[in-house]
Amino acid sequence: xxxxxxxxxxxxxxxxxxxxxxxxxxxxxxxxxxxxxxxxxxxxxxxxxxxxxxxxxxxxxxxxxxxxxxxxxxxxxxxxxxxxxxxxxxxxxxxxxxxxxxxxxxxxxxxxxxxxxxxxxxxxxxxxxxxxxxxxxxxxxxxxxxxxxxxxxxxxxxxxxxxxxxxxxxxxxxxxxxxxxxxxxxxxxxxxxxxxxxxxxxxxxxxxxxxxxxxxxxxxxxxxxxxxxxxxxxxxxxxxxxxxxxxxxxxxxxxxxxxxxxxxxxxxxxxxxxxxxxxxxxxxxxxxxxxxxxxxxxxxxxxxxxxxxxxxxxxxxxxxxxxxxxxxxxxxxxxxxxxxxxxxxxxxxxxxxxxxxxxxxxxxxxxxxxxxxxxxxxxxxxxxxxxxxxxxxxxxxxxxx
Length: 401
What we know:
The chain is α+β, with helices and mostly antiparallel strands.
């Protein structure tokens, strides 16, 4: 038989290199060989394990059923701590239980408490590791090969009792330990951001709150979080009830950004030289487009009259943004191309490349493939009809800075 034993998985630290965000501890799993049990030994084993593991009647019945088959290898319990494992080991040595063995089993743990109840720090950023040693979501999945290293491989024979016996004539392959990672996340700031997100979630009765803290000059992420979050040490409970909570909306969920997109329109106009911050533009409550077949409104459906372009952005006037977008070129087609090109330059429509698993690219419609009408251009000027991720938005604003 060929046996693979995982090497120690690399730890994950915050930017200081001193705060441990993820590490691995050694636990043990309980293995049974039901095919080796007589009825008397099975009964004695069930009674003793029921006592050691403090099983109720339902769990004790389930244990008896699992030991009643003819299988040669059954995993009865994962993640036993040292105290319980030692009690079982003593029972094996004293022959109070039969057909049982204990095997080492690494378990990933996330020691830092998160900013909300039932959560660990930076859970969405980190992800978690499943029973098979595979990283799921976040850093754990993206850096799976780096963190996991290479397992040690041993070829062995099994004796009559099913135990592995090493064959000295067969070569084994030593493993390569996983590599530690140091993130750009600041643990202290991450905790404060998570606490603020919980407060906003409660105050606004929100479905979800998210935040990204980025250095605009380097792109380093100092904090990134979403609430509701989850406990990476108890991911199995979430997997059974609400697996969608594992998805990180800052990188994997798109939304219509709205008025924050007016800065993209400003970037296109100022770069193109069609306006300056002091250019005066008349703000009307409603702007009719496409020969009267469509219209856009300001949020208050009122006009503020003549105002500078920078005031139009400051007061978040839809009409001002639409007028500026329509005047980016000599025609709607040309203006659409100019605005779309700025979106692409700022990173929309494609993943940012952040080193987390599951990033999506968002949705922006190419006017060269599907012609934009005036209403499409106007809506795009203030962030409607496009879909972006929060990390794309933060990255774009960093570019503007």
